[in-house]
């Protein structure tokens, strides 16, 4: 039986059907190169063109992502241009950075995805209140604290929460974590503590390094002490301060000034997203009872029936904000688009004698006042100008001193007399 060589796409018809039809003559592509001849003969060119069209359509629809990526690529250039522009009406001083995120704003109706946030000093007075707010918002929070001034009791109510972690660690040693935001609060803030253990600079440097490595946004909690004994009143953020660089308080004052310098250098040089808050006197529950700060001193002394110690003539002024107002300001700053620095404080101004009178009215009207020699480098006046915070953050304090102080007194009374009150209650019941 004879055999026929059958080519793909063409077969020889049976002999009896030859007269009925003649096969379609093939086009002559013999002169074309092999790959091109293959595409034309086997009709692959059509499918190739269809595939290219679909790919072009896909990349056209995906163009928003590529444009967002190009914005991020241009970030160093934008920052360099901004820093080179002259200041106009103070705007140049207020460096701002737009939040760059692929995909833009979250559509309405979608639940906000929780962030992974680290709070250094999160077991302390302010830090623990901040942790409460972040946990309530749905974020995963990692508290890093060496418990020098922080207390486990401040965060113990979060133990067992899957969104809460507690790490005993001193930030003067490097730490590796994967986080979205860093609230850097770790630093002794009262004279009793910071003179013993000044740790501003090294800890800040380590946390800035962490922010650079993982691309996290970094918030530095600086202080009104950067203004020293101010010659400008009230103090605005453009004021450079009047600080004694070798005084007994300089380890804290200059340490915070250096921390601000490092933060801005990482912003300008390494494009780290940073925020700077300058915190004025803050009070509230969970303050250290014997930390040497004036509000805690007066409250503890009045509760213990001791004289209220006023240093100097008592005419030096301070401004006092309740801790919940501060936490609100820190969160607005972190989530906002402005670097700062921003003053976060209550512009209500009190002399030390006026503060003592408020404490007497709240706790014990018979409490006596005892005058003592003033301490070195004690600022004469301290009052924040919070105009920028109002305009750019939409923030201002809401709790007055007479409203917030009783809440602090309740907490101090429980912690000072807790065991005694429990014992007295048990004796009464028996």
Automatic annotation (TrEMBL):
Keyword NAD applies: yes
Residue span(s) of domain NAD(P)-binding: 119-406
GO molecular function terms listed in the Swiss-Prot or TrEMBL record: NAD+ binding; UDP-glucuronate decarboxylase activity
Alphabetized UniProt keyword annotations: Decarboxylase, Golgi apparatus, Lyase, Membrane, NAD, Transmembrane, Transmembrane helix
Cofactor: NAD(+)
Pathway assigned to this chain's UniProt record: Nucleotide-sugar biosynthesis; UDP-alpha-D-xylose biosynthesis; UDP-alpha-D-xylose from UDP-alpha-D-glucuronate: step 1/1
Function statement: Catalyzes the NAD-dependent decarboxylation of UDP-glucuronic acid to UDP-xylose. Necessary for the biosynthesis of the core tetrasaccharide in glycosaminoglycan biosynthesis.
Name listed for the protein in its UniProt record: UDP-glucuronate decarboxylase
Organism this protein belongs to: Canna indica (Indian-shot)
């Amino acid at each position: 039986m004879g055999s026929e060589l059958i080519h793909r796409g063409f077969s020889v018809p049976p002999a009896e059907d030859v007269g009925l039809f003649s096969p379609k003559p093939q086009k002559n592509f013999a002169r074309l190169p092999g790959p091109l001849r293959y595409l034309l003969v086997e009709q692959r060119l059509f499918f190739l063109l269809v595939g290219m069209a679909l790919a072009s359509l896909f990349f056209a629809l995906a163009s928003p992502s590529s444009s967002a990526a190009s914005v991020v690529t241009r970030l160093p250039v934008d920052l360099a241009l901004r820093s080179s522009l002259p200041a106009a009406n103070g705007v140049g001083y207020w460096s701002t950075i737009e939040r760059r995120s692929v995909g833009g704003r979250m559509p309405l109706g979608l639940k906000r995805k929780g962030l992974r946030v680290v709070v250094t000093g999160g077991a302390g007075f302010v830090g623990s209140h901040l942790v409460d707010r972040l946990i309530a918002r749905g974020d995963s929070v990692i508290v890093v604290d060496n418990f020098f001034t922080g207390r486990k009791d401040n965060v113990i109510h979060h133990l067992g929460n899957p969104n809460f972690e507690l790490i005993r660690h001193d930030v003067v040693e490097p730490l590796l974590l994967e986080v979205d935001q860093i609230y850097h609060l770790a630093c002794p803030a009262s004279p009793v503590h910071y003179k013993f253990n000044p740790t501003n600079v090294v800890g800040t440097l380590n946390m800035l390094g962490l922010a650079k490595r993982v691309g996290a946004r970094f918030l530095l909690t600086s202080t009104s002490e950067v203004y020293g004994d101010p010659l400008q009143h009230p103090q605005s953020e453009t004021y450079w301060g009047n600080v004694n660089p070798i005084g007994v308080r300089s380890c804290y004052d200059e340490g915070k000034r250096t921390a601000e310098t490092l933060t801005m250098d990482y912003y300008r040089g390494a494009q780290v997203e940073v925020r700077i808050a300058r915190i004025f006197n803050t009070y509230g529950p969970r303050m250290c009872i014997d930390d040497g700060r004036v509000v805690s001193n007066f409250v503890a002394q009045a509760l213990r029936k001791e004289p209220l110690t006023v240093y100097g003539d008592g005419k030096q002024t301070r401004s006092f904000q309740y801790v919940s107002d501060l936490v609100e300001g820190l969160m607005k700053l972190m989530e906002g688009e402005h670097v700062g620095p921003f003053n976060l404080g209550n512009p209500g101004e009190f002399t030390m004698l006026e503060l003592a009178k408020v404490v007497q009215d709240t706790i014990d009207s018979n409490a006596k006042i005892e005058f003592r020699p003033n301490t070195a480098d004690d600022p004469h006046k301290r009052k924040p100008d919070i105009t920028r915070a109002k305009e750019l953050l939409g923030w201002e304090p809401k709790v007055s001193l007479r409203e917030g102080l009783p809440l602090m007194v309740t907490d101090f009374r429980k912690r000072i007399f807790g065991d005694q009150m429990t014992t007295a209650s048990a004796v009464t019941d028996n």
